[in-house]
Amino acid sequence: MNYPIDLRIDKDGKLRLSFVHKAQKILVPLNCNLSEISEDEVFRIVESQIRKIDNLKSIEDLGNDFIDSEETGGAIDHRKKCFQGLKWFFRESGLSLESDTKILLDVDADGYTLPEQWEKFGKPHKLRQVCAIFSRKNLKVYKRLGYDVSHFGNFATYVAETTTSTPFTTSDEEVDRIIKFFQDAKDEHPIFYRIYLLAFGCGLRKSEIYQVRFEHFTTFNGQHFLTLPFATKRSRLKGTSHIEKCGVSKHVYDFFTGLGFGEDLVIGGGERLHKRFVKFLKEQVGIDENKACHRLRKILGARLATEHGIYHASKQLRNSVGVCERYYSDLVSHRNDLMV
Q: Is 106 found in the same domain as 137?
């Protein structure tokens, strides 16, 4: 940095930084002692001030505007996750979030753009989330906020690799083994049995299991349902307030409504309890997958697809029909014995 920087101590013993940029003297009160600030921090403060004067935006500014603006679309948790992905790639690449957005135009010696270089990390899903920051709709928002949107071209035009979903497989032996195990263990492990019923019997995700209250179980037209009035994965991604619901068997309905009622949580626990349950599934039930509890949900989807078809599995799991087709299409009967 070629700017002469002046650091002075005011009457209160606090530092004051000053420098000249474009014939304009800039004063910045630091409100700290000399021993409390490093040379690098002084340079970062000066660079930040220069960016403000020249109306230059940093990657950090971009992320904050993306998260804070309701016009960029999607739920705020989803926006945060997208920017967390960008921060991850910057950290792995040794890049600073305080860099000007022009850094997004960088190419390496072989002519590869940043998103093309980041393919080497093997995170196509994370890279797709990053590219969502630079959608056509969002570019209009950034332009109104004073960004030079030409800096975002490499990300706006990049087509991220599509991950291939592996068809899900299970067996009658696995299903029978899991059902028998939990029927035998429900008195010894009552809380784990509740989690099992919500995952294996209702198809709930980890993020949903620990939000269910007894009052969420209901009956309509002779059918039993579990309503999900809280934010689910699907409603967060879509940014909607639509209340989802899934069907439950009479056995599951009678079990939970017989335990309690009202606003009490069905399972009083969270992350630590879930980790114990996953460990239990691995060690006692023999489910070796990292997301052992999520496998219970998928097994329900496979059973429903086999018995009643893809659409029924989609409704119960609250996934799109397309997602269910990728996982369960091989389990559906393709016979055509209709009379013609």
A: yes
Neighbour tally for 12: CB within 10 Å: 8
Q: Answer whether residue 339 is part of any domain.
A: no
Cα–Cα distance measured from residue 51 to residue 100, given in angstroms and rounded to the nearest whole number: 8
Q: State how beta strands 15-21 and 5-9 pair.
A: antiparallel
Write out pLDDT tens, residues 206-252: 989 999 999 999 998 889 999 988 755 555 445 555 678 888 999 99
Q: What is the pLDDT of residues 135-155, one digit of tens each?
A: 999 999 999 888 889 999 999
DSSP characters for 91-125? Answer: HHTT--TTSBGGGGG-B-TT--BHHHHGGGG--HH
Number of independent structural domains in the chain: 3
d(CA 181, CA 290): 20
Please check whether residues 151 and 130 belong to one and the same domain: yes
Residues 292 and 322 in one domain: yes
Whether 161 maps to a domain, the answer reads no
* Residue 55, Cβ density class (10 Å: 0-12 exposed, 13-18 middle, ≥19 buried): exposed
Q: Is 324 found in the same domain as 239?
A: yes
Positive/negative CA dihedral, 169, 173, 174, 180? positive
* Backbone φ, ψ for residue 12 (5° rounding): -85, 5
Q: Are residues 150 and 19 in the same domain?
A: no
Measured CA to CA, the distance from residue 272 to residue 269 in angstroms comes to 7
Beta strands in 119-251 (DSSP E): 217-220, 223-228, 244-247
